[in-house]
Design goal:
About 20% of the residues lie in helices and about 25% in strands. It has about 625 residues and is α+β, with helices and mostly antiparallel strands. The strands form seven sheets. Strands 9-8-7-6-10-3-11-13-4-14 form a ten-stranded mixed β-sheet, with helices on both faces.
Length: about 625
Amino acid sequence: MLGSRLGRDNGRRSFVRKGCWIGILAAAFSGLAWTVARRPSPTHPNILIILADDQGWGDLSIHGNTNLSTPNIDSLARDGALFEYFFVSPVCSPTRAEFLTGRYHWRGGVFSTSTGGERLDLDETTIAEVFKRAGYATAIFGKWHNGSQHPYHPNARGFDEFYGFTSGHWASYFDPPLEHNGRWVRGRGYITDDLTDRAIRFIEQHRDRPFFCYVAYNTPHAPMQVPDRFWQKLAQREIRLRGREGEREDIQFTRAALAMVENIDWNVGRLLRKLDQLGLRQRTIVFYFSDNGPNSWRWNGDMKGRKGSVDEGGVRVPALIRWPGRIPAGLRVSQIAAAIDLLPTFAELAGIRTEVSKPLDGISLAPLLLGQHTDWPDRMIFQYWNGRASLRTQRFRMDPQGQLFDMLADPGQRFDVSAKYPELAAKLRQELKRFKAEAERELAPAKDRPFTVGYAPVTWLPARDGIPHGGVQRSAKAPNCSYFTHWTSLQDAITWDIEVGQAGLYEVVLYYTCPAPDVGSLIEVSFDNESVRGRVSLAHDPPLYGMEHDRVPRETESYMKDFRPLSLGHIRLRHGRGTLTVRALEIPGKQVMDLRAIELRQLPSRAGLPVLVPVSRPPA
C-alpha cells in the first residue's frame, strides 16, 4: 500500500530534504551487502514471537482460570519458562513500540493509538532491523499498529514480509480486506486462522535459514467475533470465576473473549506442530505474550485495573518462552521483566549484536532463562499512559496518586503502605515524578508530525488520519477503520496534514460509496495552489457488514463496507509540508459520498528514473 530524515534528534523534529538518487541507491545496495556479509549460521536459533491483543493475565488456564482451556499456550511453560511478573504498557501501540525497540514507548514518539500518535519515530531501531542485519529472514503477520505510511510502514522497518493491517483495530474478522507488502488483498476465513496459515507458509519457506517471525494476532480485541465451533463451546458455559468488579462484568463479552483465546490457543498449537513436523523444535525460540490487560471486567487474578489502567491489572500480562535443550523445562522466573527487555534478550539468546544507536531501557533476561545469573539486582519498571504514571519494583508499586502498595502481601492493591514505609514512599514518589516529567517532555515534539507522502509508489491516507470539518462525521467513535460520512454541505471539508518527501505528479484516487440519487457531486482535492477536480458519476451503495458475526454488540468500532476507487486525475505536489484538502464544489443530491481514504499514486518522472527506490530507512 501503500528519504532526509524524518525523526527526532535531541528533542528536535527534522523533516525530509530533497532526495538524492545516488544516495538512495547506495544505501539500498549497502544494506544488501551487509545482509550477505552477516548471513548467520544455520545453527542460530529461529525466533517466533506470538502476541495476543487485549488478552489479560487471567485469560489462561495455566494461571488458574477454569473458565477456559489453553493447553497449547500452557505447554510453553511446561516445556520452557513462565514469567510470573511480566509488564507492558496499558494499551496496544505503546507496548508494540517497546517490544520493537527495547525502549519506553514515549522515547519513540508513541503517545496515542490512532490519528498518527501510534507511529514509531524513524530514528528508532527495531528488533526486525537488528535481526535482518544479522541475516535473518523477517516477517510480521497481523496487527502492526506503529505507523501506516512509508517509511513508518513495517516493510520499511526491517520486515521483509507483511501480511495484515497497520491500524489499531479492524472492523471485520471474516474474509477481511488485508494488506500484503503494500497491496490490498482479501483475507481467507477467520483472521486469526488466516494469519497463522501465512506464518506457517513463511516458516516452511525459510526452514533452512534462520527466521524472525512475529505473529501479531488482533484477538481478543473487539469486535467480538469468533468461529462457531469455538463460540458454541463457551456460549452456554457457566462462568464460575468472576472479575473483582463483578457487577460490571458482561458475561456474554467474557464468553466471547474466552472463546477467542481458545481459538488463539488452537492456532498456537498449529504453529508448534509445524515446528515439530519440520524438525525445528530444538532450533526455535517461541515466546508468547499480550499487549495489555483484559479489554473487559473479567477474572484477572484479583488484580486492580484492566486495559488502559497503569495499575497491576492493566499492565501485567502472560509471558511464556520455550527453547528446548537450552531453557529448562518448568522454569518459573520470579524477577520482574517487561516488553522493553525483549530486544536485548532475544539478541543475546540468538548470539547477535544489538547494534542500536540509542541506549536501551531494557536489559537482557537471558541469564535468568539460562541459569547464569548469580545476583539479580532490584529495578524499577515504569508505565505511562494518557497523563497517568506508575512504577513497579520487585516488591512494590507506586500508583498515580502516590500510594504505595506491597504487591507481595497485597497483590490486589487494596492497602496503601506509605505510612509504614515513609522513606521508600518518598523516594519512589520522586522517581515517579521525574519519570512522568521526562516522558511528557519527550512526547511533546511527537504531537506535531505530519503524515508522510511520496516515500513509496503509493501512499494511503485513510479517514483515520484525516480531520473532518463542518458537518462531516466519522462512522464510529474509534477512528481506526472508520470512514467519513454526513458530508452534505459545500462548507464541509476533510483535511490531512501531510509532508511530501518526493515532489512530482500524483494520481488522486478516492475510495467512496454513494447511492444513486446522490450521484453527480463535483469534488476538488487541493494542496497549496494545485488542485484536481472530478465528478462522482457512478453509484456505488453496498451494504454494511460485520454485524452478522458479532457475538455481542460492538460499542466503538465501525462496521465495514466495500468502497469503490474513483480517480480524479493528477495533481502536482511540491516537496514539503502542507494541508491536503478535499471538498465538494457542487452537491446535486442530499450528500456527497462516504469516504474511506485517499490514495496518492506517484507517477514516473519525465527523466525516466524510478520515483522511489525502497529502502529500510530514509537517507540522512
